Amino acid sequence: MPGTPFASDALDNITFSLGRGSFTLLIGPSGSGKTTLIQHLNGLLKPTSGAVYFDGKKIGADKAALLSLRRRIGLVFQMPEEQFFSETVYDEIAYAPRNLGLDENKVKERVVKAVERVGLEHKDLLDRHPFQLSAGQKRLVAFAAVLSIEPEVLILDEPAAGLDPAGKQKLFNLLYGLNRSEEITVLVSTHHLDEVAALADYLLALKGGRLMMAGKAREVLARRTELQGLGLALPQVTEIMDQLSVRGLPVRKDIYSLSAACEEIIRVKRADQG
Amino acid sequence: MAVVKAEPIIEAKKIYYSYAGEEEEFSPALSDVDLKINQGEYLTLLGANGSGKTTLLKLLNALLIPSQGEVLVKGISTVEAEQLELVRQTCGMIFQNPDNQIVATTVEEDIAFGLENLALPSAEIRRRVDNVASRLGLTHLLQHPPHRLSGGEKQRTAIAGILAMQPACILMDEPTAMLDPAGRLEVLKTVKDLNKKESLAIVHVTHSPAEAAEADRIVVLELGRIVADGKPEEILTNLKLLHKLGLEGTVAAELADLLRQEGLKLPAAIMSNRELIESLCSSEQIS
Amino acid sequence: MSRSITLGHYLPGDSAIHQLNPRIKVPVLMVILVILFAIKTLTGLVAMLVAVFLLFAVARVPFSYFLKGLRPIIYIALFALIIFIFFTKGGVVLFRFGPFTVESEGLWQGLFVIIRLVTLVLFSLLLTLTTTPLSLTHGLGYYLKPLSRIGLPAEEVVMIMAIALRFIPTLIEESQRLMRAQVSRGADFESGSIFRKAKNLVPLIVPLFVSAFRRADELALAMEARGYRLGARRTRLHEDLIKTQDWLVLLMALLLLAAVIYNQYLR
Fold first, then answer.
1. Nearest to B165 by CA among B202, B117, B205
2. How far from the centroid of its chain's Cα atoms is residue C55's Cα?
3. A48: domain range?
4. Does C122 share its domain with C163?
5. Which chains touch C (3+ CB pairs under 8 A)?
6. What is the pLDDT along chain B (287 residues), one digit of tens a residue?
7. Are C1 and A36 inside 8 Å of each other by CB?
């Protein structure tokens, strides 16, 4: 499902593709064009030149085609709980499938399934008013509201914004789970590498509307100086490992999570002894 | 020679607070809280959502009045309505949402807002606005409307507006929560500078351990009560307490903990990256 | 990444006209409107038209703004001209095609009405081009003050309008974002009957309202925290003092009005 060149005021000559089932991170500072880029991927915005292709077909302006595109590509905006308007959680999650023309039985199936997939107990939840939920629950309901489309591709803009550290980790693990177990192609646009760098297959780095770096996550993340030049902060854990390496400890540098860091340090220490 | 201890700027004495309509069912938002904040002190209020940290912050500048007990700002009780102006001028507050605290159509008008409320003469307002703008690097933005500012710039504008009122203390309610990393650094650096160079007291509500590490002192809240009060080195390495509250220590502290669980001997209180690296590089034995 | 959204076509500048106090600009405009309707001769109107062109030059407004500003009334003007040309009789017959005659009186009166309309629009345009919406709000607020004696909270009304102005660009961006988000969930805001469309707007209106209430709450708290109190005395950064040139301009406008009335009605 490749995307091909676009150019506009905010975006300049961007070419990349997302493979089916991949987990890709889109990183870059504010104003780098991430949100604009994302909105091209489900046809909300049209490129001034160049085109976006989904599953081999070019995304055009035909309304019926766009609607069926949005059956397959789900886009979750930043702070998605701000879109709530329904009186019950059920209706909120049912909005998208209903818009897509499904009958009520199918809609019900989808709603229940979506709630389960995000890890919420649906028994009392579905009848409650969305505004009565906690912040974490609201966020999950907002995701369910897009998952009920049962998209093949899930694009998320800052999905963890406003959550506390535990909430962030939970969320990214959820996305990773959806990607691995259901083969949903995931694209996450974010500033925070800490919780998610370890999970990504591919990484795209944007700055000033241009695609500065693209490739396998491990490879891109290894290009430390370039990343720093783009004003992007590596995960804390990775910085620690880098510094250990500078100080002479023979640790691997492709470490992006706490558990990996722990393992690697132990390994090196044990090797050192034995 | 007697050392005169400076009066705390803010003092909370045995305060309780309940939100209206929540009386019997839930425990009060705050119970039995005693807190003193001294001049020039950088204090972090740490806690999970619902711990009462924002409530406590609002009690400190009289946005809320305690149900029991009292809050004294420079010796004045916040209950005294006539002195409200002085309380608000002494303790300024920055909020989480950068947009929803900017009132005016341009940066300079917004910085002037507090001063206009104090009914200062126009020339004095002008002087202070220009002064504060130059201290915070906002001079080139003075004519800008708020929707053309970045998140970090908006928060700095808010800080400027407070600073112009010449407060003794700045209260901050998760001011970086809605900013990108660059904006976050901007704001934190600005605040740290104000604390160090101008001895402004800071009370910073956050749930980020990295931000909390910058403080002189951390007060931890759980369900409306203070459960810990100490230096960052003590609090942020006390993972047992933090995890129980649904919080985390700094990355270095968490990693150190994991390593200790695997048998690596490391000193107890590791908080910063540097400390961890030093310990690891000075050959420790594995059991 | 937001474009600057200008309201009411304000064009930044520092000409003499930009610097006039809005408290004077508003009554002066009203005096000018009275003058425009009091003038009975075509020459008088043309003189006023020339005057407004000159004022545009003083304000350093590019010609393109003229044309842009006149665009909305072009159809009305043409329509009026046609009505007058074909249906007002009198004077010399100028053209004749088939059953229609065009007589000079019709052409004259048509021109009269159009020139007056155009001059009127141009003077108003001059006001909005040289005065920020906020400035105007404060200027008008000044005239609301006497109403506070009968209970109208004039200062607060001005504050409300100023805050509304401040949030308009923000709200516009927010609603655009919201619309795109709902469209991504399959919403369709374009097709269907009026009833359908109205129903489909609920997912836009409710969140915007909720967000607006939340904003208002947070903003009120922030204002309180900075010492704002209803009814308390406030000063302003920009004082908007009325200067000598402001009085002079008002005086000139009034003199002109007097001259016109004398000339057109009392001689």
1. B117
2. 17
3. 2-227
4. no
5. A, B
6. 444 456 888 999 999 898 876 555 566 889 999 999 999 999 999 998 888 999 999 999 999 999 889 999 998 898 887 888 899 999 999 999 999 999 999 999 999 999 999 999 999 999 999 999 999 999 999 988 898 899 999 999 999 999 999 999 999 999 998 888 889 999 999 999 999 999 999 999 998 898 999 999 999 999 999 999 999 999 999 999 999 988 888 999 999 999 999 988 888 889 999 999 998 888 554 44
7. yes
CATH assignment of B10-249?
3.40.50.300
CA–CA dist C130, C53 (Å, integer): 14
As separate numbers, helices (DSSP H) first and strands (DSSP E) second, chain A gives: 11, 10
For A160-177, how does the pLDDT look when each residue is reduced to its tens digit (9 = 90+)?
888 877 788 889 999 999
- How far apart, in Å, are the Cα atoms of B38 and each of A141, B2, B11, B43, B169? 44, 19, 9, 9, 9
Q: Which one of C1, C177, C210 has the shortest CB-CB distance to A77?
A: C177
Q: What is the ipTM of this complex?
A: 0.89
Q: Do C244 and C188 share a domain, yes or no?
A: no
User: Do residues C193 and C234 touch, judged by C-beta distance below 8 A?
Assistant: no
Buried b (16+ CB within 10 A) or exposed e, B195-226: beeeebbbbbbbbbbbbbbbbebbbbbbbbbb
A166/B246 CB distance under 8 A: yes
CA distance C253 to chain B (A): 30
Contacts of A149 in chain C (CB under 8 A): 185-186
Considering its fold, how many domains does chain A have in total? 2
Of C5, C226, C235, the CB nearest to B120: C235
C221 closest CB neighbour out of B63, B148, B165: B63
Chain C residues inside the 8 Å CB shell of B118: 227
Q: What is the pLDDT of residues C7-42, one digit of tens each?
A: 457 787 888 888 889 889 989 999 999 999 988 888
Of C1, C183, C211, the CB nearest to A82: C211
Closest-CA residue of C relative to A66 is: C186
B178 touches chain A (CB under 8 A): yes
Q: Which domain holds residue C33?
A: 22-142+240-262
- Single-letter code of the amino acid located at C53: F
Tell whether A198 and A270 lie within a shared domain.
Answer: no
Per-domain residue ranges of chain B: 10-249, 250-282
